[in-house]
Amino acid sequence: MLLAGVTVSQLLLILHILAVIVAFAPAVVSPLTASRLQGEQGALRSFSTASGANTRSVYLPALVVVGVLGFAMVGVSDDRFKFSDPWVSAAALLWLIIAAVVGAVIMPAERLVGAGDADAASKLRLGSGVVTLLLVVVLFLMVVKPG
User: Fold this and answer.
1) Are 124 and 31 in contact (CB under 8 A)?
2) What CA–CA distance (Å, rounded) separates 58 from 51?
3) Extents of the domains making up the chain
């Protein structure tokens, strides 16, 4: 059997990584696509409308799953990791900040660009850049585990 010998911790890690890929791929790819469509308002509006729908139905739920699985991994780690570990606490805080940026900046900007507000594209790029930067910091914390 494929799952024979796979621990709960390993399964959670695999699912956590998959959720990260689903949740964060658009933060990297969408601004690049939007930049290429900048001169084509109809295409940019259509893309932003579709992207916004995906954010609400796929990417944001995946971001929630990332956090839930991360907390679950700490919970089943047999005290290898604790919520009091500085890197765990910092990563959890950054996850909350990422979720706030997605909800407060990216999702409204996607709606505005989809409605024809070309100026909102800069907010969308800014939000995506912040999310990508924070993701890199979280990845550093999870790999290096400082403190």
Assistant:
1) yes
2) 10
3) 8-75+83-144
d(CA 124, CA 105): 7
User: Are 88 and 81 contacting, i.e. CB atoms less than 8 angstroms apart?
Assistant: yes
For the segment 8-67, what is each residue's pLDDT rounded down to a tens digit? 999 999 999 999 999 998 888 888 888 888 788 788 889 899 999 999 999 999 999 999
Q: Which of 12, 57, 63, 54 is nearest to 29 (CA)?
A: 54
Q: How far is it, in rounded angstroms, from Cα 113 to Cα 41?
A: 9
SS3 22: helix
Query: pLDDT tens digits, residue range 115-128?
Result: 989 889 889 889 99
Identify the CA nearest to 60 among candidates 21, 99, 5: 99
